[in-house]
Amino acid sequence: MILLEIKEYLKEQKRASLKDVATKFDLTEDVAKEMLAHWERKGKIAQAEKAPCGKNCSCCSSPCGAMYFWKEN
Question: Residue 70 in contact with residue 63, Cβ under 8 Å?
Fold first, then answer.
């Protein structure tokens, strides 16, 4: 099931953008966002406030979209 694959991907990567997840699993960004929302509701992931570059995604010249990270238990 793709939800479990996304879970494993985020656990391995620790952090990924919405665009990365959509591309990796051949999904539209809207569908990827809904699947990520499932794990967010369960408290397993959260959206990062800043991109890996240290800036808010809206500040980058090539925006990466929302960033998500796996929350370790």
Answer: no
pLDDT at 61: 46
Sheet holding 45-47, edge to edge: 15-17, 67-70, 45-47
Domain residue ranges in the chain: 1-42
Distance CA(65)–CA(55), nearest Å, equals 12
Q: pTM, whole model, 2 decimals?
A: 0.77
What does the alpha-carbon distance between residue 25 and residue 22 come to, in Å, rounded to a whole number? 6
Contact 51, 67 (CB under 8 A): yes
- Separation CA 24–CA 18 (nearest Å): 10
